[in-house]
Amino acid sequence: MKYIAIIITLLFAGNIALAQNTHFTTSGTIEFEKSVNMFAWLKKQITTSNSSYMQQVYDQYVKSKPQFVKLKSTLTFSKDKSLFTPIADETNTNSYANDPAIAQNNTVFNDILNGTSITRKNAFEDYFLVKDSTRKINWKITDETRDILGYTCRRANAIILDSVYVVAFYTDEIVVSSGPESFTGLPGMILGVALPHDNITWFATKVTDTTVPPAALAPPTKGKVVNNEQLKTTIDKALKGYGTEALIYLKVFLL
User: Fold this and answer.
1) Spatial contact of 163 and 172, defined as CB atoms under 8 Å apart
2) Which of 10, 33, 214, 235 is 20 to 30 A away from residue 246, measured at CA?
């Protein structure tokens, strides 16, 4: 019994030492890369009514262009705020670079403490400043894990906008509930997001643990001020007459 007590004491002390030596990040920057599988995306655009034209477009694209479009962004964060900012790529000559489904059109500020967000959106060449509560996502956390940049990340799944299936990977070693775009609400930082049915992913490529000055977390200020419901109404009107394409672009603008 004496030896068992000693072993238990040593294990307990070891666990305390491990917990004391574990570093939890509360501020810094994360570089993300958005990847769009253009081959899969273009193939989905082929329908019975446009196949004679779109099949040629698809075949030519596959012959002459890379499969994936890559876009960069940064997420700056403190313990209670975050700012997601797309990085413009002036060298991107892809003919679909400005398509809303491909481009990054959102600058997203989250006030994590108060549960509010301010998002600057570019839709139909107009800028909107969407001020509303942070999107509530009904995440289902799983037991699956994945290593991203040395961080052990747990998988979570969700459905947003009624039909968009989302897979996210978050780490509790970065104790800030945020992520790229408007993906948030997990008990740690989201370092990877996939929209499997839309052939789009966002994954962290670099994490920098550093003190962030308040000025680096200033929310966007320019644009027509609306809330989420008002934005949806505006986009619905603009897309009237677009047919089935309206649903695609509505989902993109509300993401």
Assistant:
1) no
2) 33
Mean pLDDT of 92-118: 87
Q: How many CB atoms lie within 10 A of CB 196?
A: 11
CA-wise closest residue to 200 among 246, 255, 148: 255
Q: Is 215 helix (H, G, I), strand (E, B) or coil?
A: helix
Whether the Cβ atoms of residue 229 and residue 44 lie closer than 8 Å to each other: no
Length reported for the chain: 255
Quick one: pLDDT band at residue 4, thresholds 50, 70, 90? very low
Query: With a threshold of 0.85, does the pTM exceed it?
Result: yes
Judge residue 34's burial from the number of C-beta atoms within 10 Å of its C-beta, 0-12 exposed, 13-18 middle, 19 or more buried: buried
pLDDT reported for residue 250:
79
Strand 200-209 and strand 116-123: the pairing is unpaired
